Amino acid sequence: MTDFQQINLVSPSAALDHGQSEEDLARADTYGLIAELFAAPPSDVFFSRLAASPKPDPADDAPLTQAWRALLLVAAEQAPVASRAEYDTLFYSVGKPEVMLNGSFYLAGAQNRAPLVELRSDLAEMGIERDPSSSETEDHLASLCEVMRFLVAGDLDTAASGRSLLEQQQAFFQAHLGNWVFELLERIDSHPKARFYAAVAQFSRGFFEIEQQAFDIFGATQVAAGGFPES
């Protein structure tokens, strides 16, 4: 079994190249970036990496590029300590956090319900299990993004499923991420105490919208070709 803690905490440096396209490797890295942003308060090293990252082409007015440009601007203007405090305010609490990052909360109204059981079953089929020492359940946004990162980069051995890599990505995204993440991101974006994480939410939403559209198109072409039944 793959150690789930490794997936949860892996550094979002460049994805390994298993013959994937440049676009897929970029997608994998973006999933890794979003995972790091939501896994823990951002470190000084993280902000240094953001500051050193290539700046978007000013002529590129694509929505995702604009969201990335806005995120870089907020990161440059807001002190790292303030962004870390913002993370704690939004996502940490002795009781219930102001914003929950777990899918079961949005799908079932509470944690540790049926969606988490289904997720664990799908992860087990991919050879992934949770480290018992981890304080987060597998339906945490950061953990789900790490799984998607590995699926997109081709780093998981899922050949036994009999499905193509893209089919597996689509199935996992739709079953465990796309059906609740937009509600979460809207809550963050509209939260009165969110500034840095409002920009993070806007960037994440732009990326996930592109992913959702691509998976929808892929699903439609598969149905038209008789590949698999429409859900």
How is this structure best described in words?
Helices cover 61% and strands 2% of the residues. The chain has 11 helices and 2 strands, in the order βαααααααβαααα. The chain has helices at residues 4-9, 22-39, 44-52, 63-77, 80-91, 103-108, 114-125, 141-153, 165-176, 181-189, 196-224, and strands spanning 2-3, 128-129. Strands 1-2 form a two-stranded parallel sheet. The chain is globular, with a radius of gyration of 17 Å. Mean pLDDT is 85; it is low at 1-18.
So what's the overall shape?
globular
Number of strands: 2
- Give me the strand/helix succession: EHHHHHHHEHHHH
Question: Which residues sit in consecutive blocks of at least 5 with pLDDT less than 50?
Answer: 1-18
Q: Share of helix among residues?
A: 55-70%
Share in β-strands: under 5%
Mean pLDDT: 85
- Distance between the terminal alpha carbons, to the nearest Å? 30 Å
Query: Strand pairing plus helix content: what structural class?
Result: mainly alpha
Strand order of the largest sheet: 1-2
Q: Number of DSSP helices?
A: 11
State Rg.
Answer: 17 Å
Largest sheet: 2 strands, parallel
